[in-house]
Design goal:
Strand order of the largest sheet: 10-11-9-12-13-14
Organism: Tsukamurella paurometabola
CATH topology of the largest domain: Rossmann fold
Number of strands: 18
EC number: 3.6.5.-
Structural class: alpha/beta
Family: Belongs to the TRAFAC class OBG-HflX-like GTPase superfamily. OBG GTPase family.
Domain OCT: 358-438
Protein name: GTPase Obg
Number of helices: 11
Distance between the termini: 94 Å
Length: 486
Amino acid sequence: MSRFVDRVTVHVTAGNGGHGCASIHREKFKPLGGPDGGNGGRGGSVILEVDPQVHTLLDFHFRPHLKATNGKPGEGGNREGKSGQDLVLKVPDGTVVLDTDGRMLADLVGAGTRFDAAQGGRGGRGNAALVSKARKAPGFALLGEEGQARDLVLELKSVADVGLVGFPSAGKSSLVSVLSAAKPKIADYPFTTLAPNLGVVSAGETTFTVADVPGLIPGASTGRGLGLDFLRHLERCAVLAHVVDCATLEPGRDPVSDVDALEAELAAYQPALAADTGLGDLAERPRIVVLNKADVPDAEELAEMVRPEFEARGWPVFVISAVAHTGLRELTFALADLVQKYRAERGTPVARRPVIRPIAIDESGFEVISDPDQPGGFIVRGPRPERWIKQTPFDNDEAVGYLADRLNRLGVEDELVKLGAVPGCPVTIGDVCFEWEPSLGTIDDVPVTGRGTDIRLERNERVGAAERRHQHDVRRGLASDDEDDE
């Protein structure tokens, strides 16, 4: 049995970028072929796309963890790695994307509308792309970046022209079943629908959709019952129809009090996307009152008694029986007229283009603060330094020297000196903590050594032959520690 799921939490992870390649062109009779390592491929992104054939978020309920493919590493011969394949996820029309803090990220309305849920990581640069005047044959390449990982909340707000509102067992599901070809669950005992039902209704040349919203009760706007779970399905409806049970036997209930109670809940519920839908608050939507179950004895008489009160509010009133199929034709054409009027006022809908709202980031900036966990230590924060740390293979001295040059050009060393950093103090950038060695100089100031090495980072702790001979003489008593080697 299929299930209707209208709210899920998904964990999306984009693909990692491929590593760059460190390669030197080797060919007979060409001893100086030069570097030819290619860049790594971009990681695949996770994209949400509206598909009219999808009507529920059920697939994400069973598969909440979604990941795109990684980019391939670069290769020699200036061959770039293959980019990862984007993971395109089909979502229903009317899906709203939120972050875990409840901030809206996207409102997906209209077939083909897309949203980049997670950006793929950039591929690392190969050594062919790192060639400079001072570093003609780099012996290293940069690592690929990790793909973005996010937790997102997907909410489905049904896109329907008419929303049926009413207490449980008011006959909304029965009305949808007789107006359209939909077959919702209907029974002769009191119960409430647990999922909205959508039906397509034709009245002459006008075709519109009707949403049976599960029964609301007083307090629904504050979270009582299932109100908040389904009130959002009314946000996009152009017309609201009150379906009233005129044959209820519950004490203290009558058609007027039922409608007043629901009106109070609709007025209290403020749709979060009022500005995007362009329909205003729920309290301002056109109303129509449907007095149902007129086939029950005394119900039709009660409906005629309350009709003048609803008409005095300016609301059209229709007395029907979903079971006996009476009054349905007049109701159908009245709803079609209201929907047609709304469509005429709204105009011809234009396909929505993707709206990109980038967050301004100053990547050139950084800050240096004191490390609260390490006395005398410092923490460097900023998009560029943190990204450079992730791209650097620390098992390669030349790559570490390249990182030092980049940080020096950015001004990190000058800022550390200004804040009183001393040699050997711990400095943390991203997930890496190292001992700071100031004034390494730039690559232009020192001779270039072999590939993969940097003379500025060499620490030769090997004991030479002269020192070993002197220590041997000291142990035999032929020399003292205070003697200077000549």
